[in-house]
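YM 10:42: Transposase IS110-like N-terminal domain-containing protein sequence, as discussed on the call
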Amino acid sequence: MSLKIVYPICCGIDVHKTFVVACIASTNSKGVTTYKSHRFSTFTKGLNELLQWLCEHDCKDVCMESTGKYWVPVFNILEPSCHITLAHPKYVKAIRGKKTDKKDAKWIADLFKHDLVAGSFMPPLPIRQLRDLMRYRFKLTNFTSSEKNRFQNSLTVLNIQLASVVSDTFGKSAMNIMNKLLEDPQDTSFDLEPLLHGSLKASCLKLRLPWTA
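YM 10:58: structure's back
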């Protein structure tokens, strides 16, 4: 019993850092499949040539490996014109033997034409962009928190106990004081009042205690 052909015209793409190898599998009404393979650069010009090549062969169904981050530019260029199935490499791994890029691309196409590839979930482009933005924001937030902790630890080591007399070590008044101290670490008798804001102006003497002998 032969397997059902789900995608009569489809393409398998083997993705690498500097190039991709694409193999189009075209199956006629008699079940005979012919293959066309081509190698393209991963520069934008090369990927646009890949898209044009697929369109010339009326191939709208594409399957490729999610190799590192190398698949992302390929996906972004093909997405508007093709239906893309993104597969984890372990699900399209070729059988043991002498492997070539063309054989790998053909193997992916053969699996895909029978709908034997489990595709990964890919949200729409606006959601992917939002995810990237939120990941970057999360990274920056963690970085900021880490640097604030490093700064507070430095104050502790230097016995500048600013946190004992102000509620926010990174508030405007506290940062003014720190900047003044950095200008001349030996001068601890500077005029404090112009640096303070709000209710802290009434605590000049108390505020001088953390860094004076």
